[in-house]
Amino acid sequence: MIKLSEYAKRRKDFMQQVGPSGVVIIASAPERPRNGDAFYPYRQNSDFYYLTGFEEPEAVLVLAPKRKEGEFILFNRVRDRDHEIWDGPRAGQEGAVHDFQADQSFPISQLNDLLPEFLIGRETIHYTLGLNRDFDKTLLNNLNKVRGKIRGGLQSPNGFIDISNLHEMRLLKSASEIAVMQKAVDITHKAHVRAMAFCKPGVYEYQLEAELMYEFQRNGARSPAYNSIVGSGRNTCILHYISNNQKIADGDLVLIDAGAEYQNYAADITRTFPANGKFTSEQRAVYDIVLEAQLAAIKSIKPGASWVSAQDIIVKIMTQGLVDLGILKGSVETLIEKEAYLPYYMHRSGHWLGLDVHDVGRYRVHTKWRPLEQGMVFTVEPGLYLSSDIPGLAKRWHHIGVRIEDNVVVTEKGHQVLSNSIPKTVTEIEALMAN
Ligand SMILES: [Mn+2]
Fold this sequence. Notes:
Layout (H helix, E strand, L loop, with lengths): L3 H15 L3 E6 L5 E3 L2 E2 L6 H7 L7 E4 L8 E5 L4 H7 L4 H7 L5 E4 L3 H9 L4 E3 L6 H14 L12 E3 L2 H8 L3 H24 L6 H14 L4 E2 L4 E4 L20 E6 L1 E3 L2 E2 L2 E6 L6 H19 L9 H16 L7 H6 L26 E2 L2 E2 L7 E4 L2 E4 L13 E4 L2 E5 L4 E3 L8 H9 L1
Parallel strand pairs: 1-7, 5-6, 7-8
Antiparallel strand pairs: 1-4, 2-3, 4-5, 9-12, 10-11, 11-14, 12-13, 15-16, 17-20, 18-19, 20-21
Bound molecules: manganese (II) ion.
The site of manganese (II) ion (MN) has 5 residues, from loops.
């Protein structure tokens, strides 16, 4: 659990960076219709949640540094008995103040009347345009109301700044955030083990997905952090395969890329295993190359190491591996220079992980790949995808898609793998599936 005091500290730190000439405005995520009058399960906007812990829709957060009447203002729904009978309790204005520590709370219906007051006297609005068209309009309309107005020597805002400063804060995780992410990973651990143990030739991909969901939900993760990928056979070579509707055949590999979302924090784990519990020699050869690359990349992680060094290590080991298998021919150095590995490995080594599965934060600073810092959490996920579509690839390699993905925290002196104990060597996987 993230404590209220931590949300308060985040707001304070962010307002410190914004300064008294700016105002921060963040809208809650819109509710999204699925079909007819049914909606997708609601998920709060991650920036909004990071600064408030508030999970209701139809809300707007205003942070107004140094404002006399209070700096943290929440516009949210009023309490309403009729609505609450149908849809459950709401915090209301009293709850916003008492339970979420807002300095002031106003009914969301008063937004258009009151928002101009928060804009006057500020030079810049910290708001990212283009993500929520409806709210963009609301905000621009209110900005137009106060444009050019000078009141008591105070001017209206003359520009927008996107909230990338906040994203740099989100990139560095606190101890309590890492604890929540560990919980998301632990639940994901159970899910992967359950799906592996359940798997046998003849079951459908969606049946493995059901096993994942069972562990997620019974452990308090109400949703996956992203659509689960369960691909067998040729589908292991489709990076974001989510149809999950094919029957798994004897001799197939199965690739599961799935992570639980716990208290809005994501896990993102991939394991690849043989449907019948026993790797073929070809599958095993490819698997061991990916594993060697992944372990070497993880080993290099420490403060000060470059973000790109994991990718460089992976490319080197996997290119060497493809040469050893006879799939690529030539000198490893030249092959890397020519990016000859790209048909087999076409993505990056990983991505930041947090409230969003592809979490926020820059990867480069001043055009250079950034150095790693304590508190960064990211995935390490090399893969080799030997698709039958690759011209000239011998048939015995077809449909061998392998990705291995773990979640890693940069610690003071090195790193910690949150997902270390999820079976991943050939021996561990075969032992698990033999039971
Ligand atoms: Mn990932």
